[in-house]
C-alpha cells in the first residue's frame, strides 16, 4: 500500500513539473528546431566577414559554410577570398570537383578529393600543382550516382546520399530527412542561422532542453555555440543502474 502511495506522489510531482515547464517555456523556444543568428546575445557571435552574409563567423571570422568553401578552394589568400566570394551558400554556383582530371568527387583540402588527398600525402606531399598534372585521368566505367542536390553534379561521397561538401553539412545538421534537406537547397532566401535540432529527444527531455536554452538566453551571461548544444542533444543516452 505504501508503495502505491509513493508511486502516486512521484507521478503527481512529475505531472506538476511538466505543467510548470509548459507554462514557463515561451513559444519562441517551443519548436523542435531552434535557429540562432549572430545577433543572439548568448548563442550568436560576430557576423561572418563576407559582406552580405547573415551567418555567425566561427572560424577565421568566417561562418562554417564560407570556411568550408575556402578550404574546398584550396585555402587561397583569405582576405582576397572574403572580398570575392559570394555571400549565398546555396545555388550561387556548383561546388568545385577534385582537381585531378576526370574526377567528379568533391574537394576536401588543397583542391583534392579525399582519395587523391590521401594519395598526395602518401607521396610525401610534393608540389600539389605538379603532382596533379602527373596523375592519370580518372575513368569510371560505372560512375557513382550524383549528389541528391538538384543542381550539384558531383559524385556521392562513399555511403552518403550527397557529395562531400553537401554531405558534411547534412551530418553537421544531425542527418535530417534526406528529401527535406535536398529540397531546402532550392531556397537560400532566409539567413543560414545556426540551428539546434531537438527532434531526436523525447517530448519531456525536449521541453527541459528548451527551458534550459531559454534560461541561458535570458541570463545572457556566458556565450555558447549552437554546435556545442547540438553535441549534447545528439549524444547517445547513458545507461544507468548498478553493474552486475
Question: Which helices and strands appear, and what pairs or packs with what?
Answer:
Blueprint: H1 2-24, E1 33-36, H2 64-72, H3 78-84, H4 114-122, H5 128-133, H6 164-172, H7 178-184, E2 194-197, H8 203-219, H9 226-234
Antiparallel strand pairs: 1-2
Explain the overall architecture.
This protein has 244 residues and is mostly helical. It has a domain at 94-164 and 177-187. It is 39% helix and 3% strand. It is built from 9 helices and 2 strands, in the order αβααααααβαα. It has helices spanning 2-24, 64-72, 78-84, 114-122, 128-133, 164-172, 178-184, 203-219, 226-234, and strands spanning 33-36, 194-197.
In a few lines, what is going on in this structure?
This protein is mainly α and 244 residues long.
Shape verdict: elongated
Strand count:
2
Neighbour order of strands in the largest sheet: 1-2
Count every helix, treating DSSP H or I runs of 4 or more residues as helices: 9
Specify the biggest β-sheet.
Answer: 2 strands, antiparallel
Strand portion: under 5%
Q: Taking Cα atoms only, what radius of gyration do you get, to the nearest Å?
A: 23 Å
Low-confidence spans: none
Give the structural class.
mainly alpha
Q: Mean of residue pLDDT?
A: 83
Terminus-to-terminus distance: 30 Å
Amino acid at each position: 500500500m505504501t508503495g502505491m502511495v509513493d508511486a502516486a506522489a512521484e507521478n503527481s510531482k512529475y505531472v506538476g513539473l511538466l505543467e510548470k515547464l509548459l507554462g514557463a517555456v515561451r513559444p519562441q523556444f517551443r519548436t523542435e528546431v531552434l535557429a540562432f543568428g549572430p545577433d543572439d546575445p548568448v548563442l550568436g557571435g560576430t557576423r561572418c566577414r563576407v559582406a552580405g552574409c547573415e551567418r555567425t563567423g566561427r572560424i577565421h571570422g568566417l561562418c562554417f559554410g564560407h570556411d568550408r568553401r575556402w578550404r574546398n578552394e584550396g585555402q587561397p589568400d583569405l582576405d582576397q577570398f572574403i572580398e570575392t566570394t559570394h555571400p549565398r551558400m546555396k545555388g550561387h554556383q556548383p561546388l568545385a570537383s577534385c582537381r585531378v582530371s576526370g574526377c567528379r568527387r568533391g574537394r576536401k583540402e588543397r583542391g583534392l578529393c579525399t582519395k587523391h588527398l590521401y594519395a598526395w600525402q602518401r607521396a610525401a606531399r610534393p608540389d600539389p600543382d605538379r603532382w596533379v598534372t602527373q596523375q592519370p585521368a580518372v575513368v569510371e566505367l560505372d560512375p557513382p550516382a550524383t549528389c541528391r542536390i538538384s543542381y550539384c553534379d558531383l559524385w556521392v561521397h562513399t555511403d552518403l546520399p550527397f557529395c562531400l561538401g553537401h554531405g558534411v553539412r547534412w551530418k553537421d545538421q544531425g542527418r535530417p530527412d534526406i528529401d527535406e534537406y535536398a529540397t531546402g537547397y532550392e531556397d537560400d532566401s532566409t539567413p543560414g542561422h545556426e540551428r539546434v535540432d531537438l527532434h531526436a529527444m523525447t517530448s519531456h527531455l525536449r521541453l527541459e532542453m528548451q527551458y534550459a536554452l531559454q534560461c541561458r538566453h535570458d541570463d545572457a551571461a556566458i556565450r555558447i555555440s549552437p554546435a556545442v548544444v547540438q553535441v549534447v542533444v545528439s549524444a547517445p543516452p547513458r545507461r544507468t543502474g548498478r553493474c552486475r
